[in-house]
Amino acid sequence: MSFVSLGQQEVLLKVNNDEVTTADFVRVYEKNLALINDAEENSPEQYLDLYIDYKLKVQEAYRKGLHNKASYKKEIASYRTQLAKDYLNDVQVTDKLVEEAYNRTKNELRARHILVRVRSDALPKDTLAAFTKLLEARKRIVAGEDFASIARKYSEDPSAKQNGGDLGWFKAFKMVYPFENAAYTTKVNEVSQPFRTSFGYHIVQPTASRIAQGSVQVAHIMIALKQKDSSIIAEEKIKEVRALLAKGAAFETLALNYSDDKNSAKKGGVLSAFEKGQLSSSKFENTAFDLNKVGDISEPFKTKFGWHILKLIKKNPVLSFEKMKPSLTKRVTKDSRARVLSRELNTRLREQYKITQEPEIISYFTSVLPEVYDEKLNVFTDDNALSKEALKVGDQVYTYKDIAQALEKKYRKAPYVSRDYFVKREVENFVNNALITYHKLHLEEQDSDFGLLIKEYKEGLLLFDLLKTEIWDKAQKDSVGLNTFYVNNIERYKAPQTFTMRVFTTSQKKIASTYLKRNTQGENSNSVLSVLKKKHDSPIIVTLKDYVQEDLPMSGIVRIGDKELLKEGENYVVYEVVSINKAMTNTLQNVRGQVMSDYQKFLEDTFVNRLREDSNITVNKTVLNKLISRYNE
């Protein structure tokens, strides 16, 4: 949105001494717009009330000095450090890395590997031993020996004993970047040279590649292995459901009435789309991906959760590069592959902060340090030279002494082989660290988005602390106030009347009518059901289900023993009222969690009302009306 017509710097609101411009408010309003479901609260004037409450609570937190707490300062410092990494990484992203990630997302790879573990700080002899061991394994594989057998003998990956080093199918971001890179740059069926990751040394052999399958969306009906009704056998029930589907019954109706996955049953069994490797059941994934046409229905199959039937809703191929680029860019900035561009960051910061003195620094320390390492020699003795300015980053000045102290630590820690290499490396490291440290400390000035995020986090943390001390903790300790609130609002906590129904479903009207007739005449339901199942091949499903009054399939007054035959889609359903559970008032103990939540909300509303009464709040109606008009266009 362009704020020109709105006057972005106009003061919209003043809460005590805190002024809020139109731009300030609109930024927060539009950021949170999608989170507000209530249409009325979506309007600027309604959201302004929420915003005022927020500002009042933040001001109260500052007034109470919560920002001076050591725990708060520690939390902010930790968050800032983590967030700063993302903003530093952002400058390291290149189109080449993002395009590479896309190609490796679109093209999956199957590979096997052998790992020999070695610490990153291992001694040279240990590193050499690991490297030599892998060379030996590679030599035997290249000579024709079976990779899986060699992996079981040499690999220190525990899973190799079972899978022979096979990693299955993977794509970008599924492995650490050095491993991914080695796998994707080695030809299929060839064996890579040893390479190193944080786990140790590897060799990898790609065995196949394919175009990624994308994601799939299915609906499912699940019959859980464990049933409340011991007479229900999950496998038999799922087969009966499948038979009803084969006769034309609607998948959505059967999912709603019979699936034990209550979350998806409400949506006709529909699940969110998923990719291979995303779920905990490979059987479920493979069955879903094996369905070809939209509407195809699987045969029943079993997982550790129960018996399932799937219906294909949609297959989603990998998105185009343009559509995936924003998400890939975000992932690349957080992935280890971004480290390969750290030199570009350092180069940019050198230009940004006008660092030009490194050659002189290197020359000085090269002239001071001995060419041959001498542990006993005290090299930094010229106080006059060391006191001079070596470099300046922004307004931060570093002397030769600052750099000397850094070199001294490394100098005393271990001998160097090449003085020139040592000086060049350590001076470069010092300058890089100085640049990054200064840049991190001034990120708010360099990037307004970073500054806004830090501010939001600070205020959010203060708000949490305020509500915890002023509302949540008080509510937990105030048992008298909680009980009084419960008594004053007891009508809220009544459990509704429920009806337990026996639901008999078949696709044949004659079977349903026979069941209803014989049941009405007093025959035992289970006996009638047994006879009908033996006599008819058409599937019959019977289950118990609880209903509240407004969801009852029957109309009028309902009593225990009432029965009714209804046609629902392609099915005929007999409903029988088995029991009626009367409405009752829950005790405080039974609904303590709900009452506690309501009581905390009551305390918070009371708290905010007091803050409003004690504050000076001014809204510029003219500016607000401009906003309202703009959003109503």
UniProtKB/TrEMBL annotation:
MF GO annotations: isomerase activity
Keyword entries, A-Z: Isomerase, Rotamase
Top-level taxon of origin: Bacteria
InterPro entries reported for this sequence: PPIase_dom_sf, PPIase_PpiC, PPIase_PpiC_CS, PrsA_foldase, Trigger_fact/SurA_dom_sf
PROSITE patterns: PPIC_PPIASE_1, PPIC_PPIASE_2
Cross-referenced Gene3D superfamilies: 3.10.50.40
Annotated PpiC domain residues: 106-208, 213-314
PANTHER family: PEPTIDYL-PROLYL CIS-TRANS ISOMERASE HP_0175-RELATED, PEPTIDYLPROLYL ISOMERASE
Name under which the protein is recorded: Peptidylprolyl isomerase
Organism: Dokdonia genika
